[in-house]
Amino acid sequence: MVDYIARDGVALLQVNNPPVNALSHHVRVAIEEGLKKAGQDPRIKSIVISGKGSFIAGADIKDVSKPTILELCDLIESSGKPVVAAIKGFALGGGHEIAISCHYRIAHEKSKFGFPEVDIGILPAAGGTQRFPRLVGLEAALDLIPSGRHIGAAQAFKLGIVDKVVRGDAVEEAVKFAKSIAGEPLVDRRTSQRPVMGAENAFLAAAVKLAMKKKKGMIAPIVCLSVSFMGSLLPFEQGIQVEAAEAVVVFTSGQMGALQYAFFAQRAAPKWLLPCGASFKTVKGRPIRNAAVIGAGTMGTGITMAMLNAGIPVTLVEQDRKFLDKGVSLLKLLYAGSVSLRKITQDQCDAILSKLNTAVGYKSLTNVDLVIEAVYENMALKKQIFAELDRICPPETFLWTNTSALDIDEIASATRRPDKVLGTHFFVPAYHMKLLENVRGKLTSAETVASAQMFGTRIGKIPVVVGNCHGFVGNRMLHKYVYEADFLIEEGCWPEDVDMVAENFGLPLGPFKVRDLSGLDIRVRGLLEQAKAAGIEINPATRFLNGERISLLSKSLVDKGHCGRKTGRGFYNYGKPGGKIPLNDRFIKDVIVEYCAERGIERRKVAYQEIEERLFLPLINEGFKILEEGIASKPEDIDTIWLLGYAWPRHTGGPMYYANMVGLDKIYNRICHYNELHKHSAHWQPSLLLKKLAASKTPMKDWMEVAQASSKL
Ligand SMILES: CC/C=C\C=C\CC(=O)SCCNC(=O)CCNC(=O)[C@H](O)C(C)(C)COP(=O)(O)OP(=O)(O)OC[C@H]1O[C@@H](n2cnc3c(N)ncnc32)[C@H](O)[C@@H]1OP(=O)(O)O
């Protein structure tokens, strides 16, 4: 609601709509009523708009109706009595638009401003695309509106968004100020009446280029740019008409629904539920007071940094002093980089590093709440480490393993506390990437899951609970995409054909550029280990493993020294070891042609649609199998994992949302089509859940009803 407090000639309208003071219908109605009441009361000389706790985080994304925020903004700006915005916390989206419609703005030094509309697929269409350039000039507007970026009070002051920045109580200051300007003329305080400064074409071209790079595939940022620019050439009232017309384009594009789904999915994903019924609502986690990380390689140092950044004291452990020193040097170098880039001060860096301890061997780990093991992916080694940790650490210490695919139950079996063992799958670089897959084994307790989720949030991650299977959620789906990418090359594509389709779809890099970056030898090693475990000897003619089609093309390239960027050649030619620009290469094509000829594989022209379907449909199909098996507890978890861990294009919502948008029956039919053609790839066998959803024409959001109905049969 909105509290109306009249004091000494000032009406204070204080929005009180937790958690973020979104402009829900009743809030908009109450602001409108408050403004009218204050306008009509002769004792009131000026008005202050503020929010309890924080200012206003924008429209309520779930509730858009009348009065519109545009109408409210016009009402505020046209008020005959001065209106002052008192800003603490966030002034975002519609909240920002309300603030810039006020005649004055007083902000607390820690307040934040921004137009996040583009990230939920819309425009600041409450006059924001027209008022903002009139307030800050075209160049700054074309930078901030399409970026969705938040800025602090100091920058907002520099740009002219706020009139005064205060350290104390912004509301008290605003009320005092409002009293002092009672009765003053408002003509030059109405933003819509100002001209746009710096309306130049050059800003537009540069901004469009940047938006196409940073918000690849998204419509809203480009529309924002064109509307803001056009508005700068038109009178305000005509600019508003352009804004309204173009808002319809984005409202009907399909991207709005996908981006808003992604926003809520990301907030729903950390809310966990186990098959036994335990959930985030019923089980509390144990806070982590201190921790140890085993292994000072890339993952271990990254995880250590993620914890140090959150203020958790960490002991970094290695078996060998040389490796430990190397890891610590790397870590210190990264922090020094942050200092030189002014991301942190030297004092902050020193404070962070004061919480780092190091140790050779595990003997000192007798008083830690948590150990995260982050050695390389080798089951025997991990089991040996867990057995030793189990002997040394107190019985209540959590023992977690950073693995991207290995069996959590097998690792837990090396201990006497399988209930406290869990997989923490961090993504590279671990100090930066937002996603954390928390993998529960069959004996992992609900308290351990709750603690891992709490820990994930504390270190700034979006933690998602997943079940234990090879590759968990993310990598299990990824493997199917990677397999098909290889098969497409065998059948007639070049790496650049496949990469182009994936990149056009919205991924930042196609599968072969990614492989070149991570190193071809890594995948080959994995394949060879898989073959060894299956007791199969790989020879040039091998095309099946355990009855499943495999491709040894990467091995052929690795055998010729093509390990990717690091050797200067992989699926592309980079000119030199460590080169960054991928060039198509005749020699690589010859290797591919020779590889196919040796195996009697006839190459053909593969159509664009087939490439796209064969890359993404197996991955989606696997997502439905994961849901059906209970490895993920909701589609939002799968989509969040793909959005944050694998850079899936956000404007399509995630693989599960995308499938629903295309039509589950259509997706199912195409999977069946490829299943007929590719009998040696289990990933084409359609998911039963998908089949049922498609047959019953049930949308994704009601998947649980279908899943429950089938489990009762
Ligand atoms: C279709 C729209 C039509 C017209 C639009 C007009 C212009 C707009 O204003 S569009 C909206 C612009 N604003 C935003 O996009 C802000 C979105 N929110 C945030 O960025 C963050 O929530 C935050 C304000 C920075 C606060 O972050 P944090 O403290 O981390 O809290 P959260 O976990 O993100 O959110 C808490 C809780 O609030 C819900 N929520 C947040 N914003 C909105 C919103 N604008 N509408 C509805 N609900 C919102 C969020 O889902 C969380 O809910 P839980 O149930 O607790 O998960």
From TrEMBL:
GO cellular component annotations of the record: peroxisome
Pathway field: Lipid metabolism; fatty acid beta-oxidation
Residue intervals of the 3-hydroxyacyl-CoA dehydrogenase C-terminal domain: 471-574, 613-697
Keywords noted in UniProt: Fatty acid metabolism, Isomerase, Lipid metabolism, Lyase, Multifunctional enzyme, NAD, Oxidoreductase, Peroxisome
GO BP term (any one): fatty acid beta-oxidation
InterPro entries reported for this sequence: 3-OHacyl-CoA_DH_NAD-bd, 3HC_DH_C, 6-PGluconate_DH-like_C_sf, ClpP/crotonase-like_dom_sf, Enoyl-CoA_hydra/iso, NAD(P)-bd_dom_sf
Domain (3-hydroxyacyl-CoA dehydrogenase NAD binding): residue spans on this chain: 291-468
EC assignment: 1.1.1.35, 5.3.3.8
Reaction(s) the record says it catalyses: (3E)-hexenoyl-CoA = (2E)-hexenoyl-CoA; (3S)-hydroxyhexadecanoyl-CoA = (2E)-hexadecenoyl-CoA + H2O; a (3S)-3-hydroxyacyl-CoA + NAD(+) = a 3-oxoacyl-CoA + NADH + H(+); (3S)-hydroxyhexanoyl-CoA = (2E)-hexenoyl-CoA + H2O
Subcellular location: Peroxisome
GO molecular function, one term: NAD+ binding
Pfam families per the UniProt record, alphabetical: 3HCDH, 3HCDH_N, ECH_1
Subunit relationships: Monomer.
PANTHER family linked: 3-HYDROXYACYL-COA DEHYROGENASE, PEROXISOMAL BIFUNCTIONAL ENZYME
Family in the record: In the C-terminal section; belongs to the 3-hydroxyacyl-CoA dehydrogenase family.
Protein name: Peroxisomal bifunctional enzyme
Species for this entry: Capitella teleta (Polychaete worm)
